[in-house]
Design brief:
The complex is a heterodimer of chains A (309) and B (587). Chain A is mainly α and 309 residues long. Chain A has twelve helices and no strands. Chain A has helices at residues 3-31, 46-55, 62-74, 89-124, 129-143, 146-160, 178-204, 207-214, 219-247, 251-257, 263-271, 275-303. Chain B has 17 helices and 22 strands. In chain B, strands 12, 13, 14, 15, 16, 17, 18 and 19 form an eight-stranded mixed beta sheet that branches. In chain B, strands 2-11-10-9 form a four-stranded mixed beta sheet, covered by helices on one side. In chain B, strands 5-6-8-7 form a four-stranded antiparallel beta sheet, with helices on one face. In chain B, strand 16 (426-432), helix 13 (435-452) and strand 17 form a beta-alpha-beta unit. Classes of the chains: A mainly alpha (309), B alpha+beta (587). At the A-B interface, helix 2, helix 4, helix 6, helix 10 and helix 11 of A face strand 11, helix 7, helix 14 and strand 18 of B.
Chain lengths: 309, 587
């Protein structure tokens, strides 16, 4: 199969994937008890709830709502937000996704630099003190939830040292990004370190590395040009998914650091039964994930030419 | 285990809160004793009755004046004020930034500053004061109001505003296309209920409000409504700019479009980040000292707010939970924490149509079995106060003596009197899950078997499913469930007539007591304030004695305020910061 045909086929395959994501999400959110008009201590009277349902088409049969929303999405209309009246879902995504994207990119750069370095050190200095330190750090990173990291960073950097504000967002060149970016990069850095170390150790024992060393290549170049390139295959696989996860936002980090990103809408829209926002954010998340998988697949041949064949 | 130091601090604060309550009660008695003039003059201050714009003329005669001692009041300073009059506050992301639609989330904190209704509530005294209406007249049986609108009113874009804008805005609430969530607020106006009829709805333009000329607004009521000027101070009755609303649809309330008429205008609203209010140069009234309100948007009430306050990023914050405990435990930090009783009640509601909770003695047994001191002081760590009667103390006509006997003995006696066989019975208790209700529910689950000898099964319901659950109780049986109410305005009708009378049955208990219904029906239109309050006090005795609503506890408000914020005034009802009061002292 030619390369362009492969890419086209992969892109076409995204259509049934997205449709499946839509269907499952739609069914799940409507199968969950509750309604969008029920989030306060004082319940709204039934007459008001009935009117709201009618006004937003929630009184129609489920299959009709399913088709209607799908048709609207195809026209680029993701619907109104039930819990933020003055905005549509498209407004919310346009406001929040760029923020999560920027924060995610910064966090991913930190994670990649820190994670790869720790992983390489761990593998090259196998079973030395450096390896143990690197393994320890990555285990701490994997097992510490982001909200703990974020809270600790707020306590240390903002409350005790007063270096940065406790919360807020002012773009990627403001000091306000320090806490959320560090908190968000902690877990992916640890994951990348673990994968890099394991896969590099695997590769370092293989024949072609021995060959490279035998023909007198400097150890630094053996690692960087020969071993690391192959070792990165599994790392890229994991990295793609982690990256998609990071750039679509993290609920805890955003809530604790006051970042107006998309992550919080995943959670709050579900608890407030804001159906259009749930569907809009899940569809976007699904799209980013499938797109990242495609990009990862397209990167493989660059790392390992055998895959292209 | 509560630290002793913290406990002492808490007790100090609670004593403070109770002191407010008792002194307020004394004031109420004095107020009632003073009232001398005939008819409606008792019910509201003169200004409310359209007899001149001097609301202070007979403050003691107003039932609203009774709340003068409650709430938060930080006195003004004699010293210098700071150069920079910017106040930094906390808020959560507004949901319905449209006064005609909102049910009362944190957007109210904005509405009270950027919109100005016909009337307002004075945060110092709790009284109704004239705002966009300079005066008003009321007919003999309180069924028609004629408001005189000020002639110098302008929108924040400089265009003029008159009585027609109010007519448009009120009718807009009832317009189905508006999709308002607070339509019942208009039900006191003539034809309001008919417009909302499920079988044969009337056109919304039939709502009984009419601008007879540019500066006169005539309102016909459904029935006698002596408290209507209190209602017109609420957000649903605020004017909205027709042109902008029609041009921009739902997005009219975004910062780049919004036009309003209050002392401030909203100049920035970066969603999930911040809101900025600045002085509205077209406002007719006195210019506030604060020139700019900067609201940081927090994801929820409890997260991070207090830490930002400690870090000098906020001037006012509302600490909760562990942050609050920490603040109160530190003598220095506790000086900045102010507390006051809020106007609400959390209760257990009982199904009066299904055995065994259809039995009043059985319900009284549950009332007696609950140890409210344990709930408020131990389980809820003194951040709440016990409630033995339903209507809170800042509402005129509340009856602190409307209580039933409590304690294990009284509970067992009531259970015996009920004749209910509980040998194989399990009581179900459904509640809307939050951190507080869960703790209380678990206490009930343990306490009832101890005292009454039957089991309790808890049925926790997620917040988003709660309305559906409550609304379906109309037909579906249940045993007991959680209920709560917070005052919308300082009138007992907002409790009794709105919720508990059988015609309303807001919580779907199917509870009906004819004597109670008759008392409330008589009280709501009663022009004599003393008689009116007495009728409501009698009604509350029946309400509590029948125990379909079992009061349990009320919440306290805790506000952290920097020492340089002076002249800050908040009322127990709708305790939001009105930026027209506070000042920043030099510091």
């Amino acid at each position: 199969m030619s390369r362009s045909a492969y890419v086209i086929r992969r892109i076409l395959l995204m259509i049934p994937t997205m449709l499946a994501i839509y269907t499952v999400t739609f069914l799940l959110i409507h199968a969950t008890p509750g309604s969008p008009w029920s989030n306060q201590d004082k319940p709204l009277p039934k007459s008001v709830v009935d009117r709201l349902n009618a006004a937003y088409g929630l009184d129609k049969p489920l299959w009709k709502q399913y088709i209607d929303y799908l048709m609207n999405v195809l026209r680029g209309d993701f619907g109104p937000s039930f819990s933020s009246r003055s905005r549509t879902v498209s407004d919310i995504i346009a406001d929040t996704f760029p923020v999560s994207l920027q924060l995610g990119l910064v966090a991913m750069v930190i994670a990649t630099v820190v994670g790869l370095s720790l992983g390489v050190i761990g593998a090259v200095k196998h079973n030395t003190m450096a390896d143990y330190v690197s393994s320890f750090l990555s285990i701490v990173g994997i097992s510490t939830p982001s909200y703990v990291v974020a809270s600790l960073l707020v306590l240390i950097l903002a409350s005790w040292l007063g270096l940065v504000p406790t919360n807020g967002w002012d773009g990627i060149f403001s000091t306000k990004i320090v806490i959320p970016a560090l908190a968000l990069s902690f877990f992916p850095a640890a994951i990348l370190a673990r994968y890099t170390r394991a896969s590099l150790l695997d590769v370092l024992g293989s024949d072609y590395v021995r060959t490279a060393r035998a023909k007198g290549v400097q150890e630094r170049w053996v690692i960087i040009r020969h071993a690391l390139r192959n070792a990165l295959l599994p790392v890229v696989t994991v990295g793609g998914v982690v990256f998609a996860d990071i750039i679509t936002g993290s609920f805890f980090v955003e809530v604790i650091s006051g970042v107006p990103g998309m992550g919080r809408y995943f959670v709050t829209s579900i608890s407030s039964r804001d159906y259009p926002v749930v569907l809009g954010t899940v569809l976007l998340f699904g799209f980013v994930i499938t797109l990242m998988n495609l990009i990862v697949d397209l990167i493989y041949p660059l790392l390992d030419p055998r895959i292209a064949r | 285990m509560i630290d002793q130091n913290l406990k002492a601090e808490m007790q100090f604060l609670l004593d403070d809160a109770f002191e407010h309550r008792s002194s307020r009660r004394t004031l109420m008695q004095r107020a009632l004793a003073i009232g001398g003039a005939a008819g409606l003059a008792y019910v509201f201050p003169r200004a409310v009755l359209g007899q001149g714009a001097t609301p202070a003329a007979s403050p003691a005669a107003s039932p609203v004046a009774g709340s003068a001692q409650t709430g938060l009041h930080i006195p003004d300073t004699d010293g210098d004020l700071a150069e920079n009059q910017v106040l930094r506050l906390a808020i959560t992301e507004p949901r319905d930034m449209d006064p005609g639609v909102s049910t009362g989330y944190d957007e109210l904190a904005i509405f009270f500053n950027i919109f100005d209704g016909l009337t307002g509530v004075d945060m110092l005294t709790g009284e109704v004061v004239p705002r966009c209406a300079e005066s008003w007249e009321i007919n003999a049986d309180a069924t028609q109001y004629t408001f005189k609108i000020r002639q110098d009113l302008k929108w924040s874009n400089g265009e003029s505003l008159n009585a027609h804008d109010f007519e448009y805005s009120w009718k807009r609430v009832m317009n189905p296309d508006t999709m308002s969530k607070y339509r019942p607020a208009m039900h006191v106006i003539k034809n309001g209920p008919a417009i909302d009829s499920e079988t044969d709805p009337m056109d919304f333009n039939e709502l009984g409000v009419k601008a007879s000329d540019d500066y006169t607004l005539v309102v016909d009521m459904e029935g006698p409504t002596p408290f209507f000027p209190l209602l017109t101070s609420t957000w649903t009755y605020a004017p909205v700019p027709q042109k902008v609303v029609e041009d921009k649809a739902e997005a009219w309330a975004e910062a780049e479009n919004i036009v309003s008429n209050g002392p401030f205008k909203m100049t920035e609203w970066n969603h999930d980040q911040n809101i900025v209010l600045e002085l509205n140069e077209h406002y007719y009234g006195e210019k506030p000292t604060i020139t700019r309100g900067e609201y940081t948007i927090f994801p929820d009430d409890s997260t991070q707010q207090y830490i930002s306050f400690e870090n000098d990023e906020l001037d006012i914050a509302s600490p909760e939970g562990s942050d609050l405990e920490r603040a109160l435990a530190d003598a220095e930090a506790a000086k900045n924490i102010h507390t006051f009783a809020q106007s609400n009640c959390r209760f257990i509601t009982c199904d009066a149509k299904t055995a065994p909770t259809d039995n009043a003695d059985f319900r009284r047994a549950i009332y007696a079995a609950i140890d409210r001191d344990t709930i408020a002081n131990t389980i809820l760590k003194q951040q709440f106060v016990p409630a033995l009667n339903v209507v809170p103390s800042d509402i005129p006509g509340n009856n602190p003596d409307a209580t039933n006997p409590v304690g294990p003995d009284a509970a067992k006696a009531a259970l015996a009197a009920s004749g209910v066989d509980t040998s194989n019975f399990t009581l179900e208790y459904s509640y809307r899950v939050d951190s507080t209700t869960k703790l209380v529910a678990e206490y009930i689950e343990q306490r009832i078997p101890e005292v009454l000898g039957f089991k309790v099964k808890l049925n926790p319901i997620e917040a988003a499913a709660w309305s559906d659950y409550v609304n379906s109780r109309h037909e579906q049986p249940f045993n007991t469930k959680y209920g709560s109410w917070g005052s919308d305005f300082a009138d007992p009708s907002n409790w009794h007539n709105q919720n508990f009378v059988s015609q309303s049955d807001h919580y779907y208990l199917s509870w009906k007591n004819e004597e109670y219904d008759a008392l409330c029906a008589k009280a709501v239109g009663e022009p004599d304030v003393e008689k009116r309050n007495e009728l409501y006090r009698q009604a509350e005795v029946i309400l509590v004695n029948d125990a379909a609503y079992i009061p349990v506890y009320r919440s306290l408000a805790f506000e952290a305020v920097k020492p340089y914020v002076v002249n800050l005034h908040m009322q127990p009802i709708l305790a939001y910061v009105h930026l027209r009061y506070p000042k920043i002292a030099a510091h």
